[in-house]
Amino acid sequence: MTDAQVGLIVATPMIIVFAIALNRMGVLQRAGAMTAVIFSVAIAAVLFLNQ
Question: Range of 24's domain?
Fold first, then answer.
């Protein structure tokens, strides 16, 4: 695996956890949190497979 792929594997779960934490604190609505999770996973998958 390249450094970029390792970075994607590390960064994506952090984005997901941050979005869930913001949702639980009431800062981010459920739709916004779900959008952040879906798009971060989609972007990571595309970038990971294109490396």
Answer: 3-50
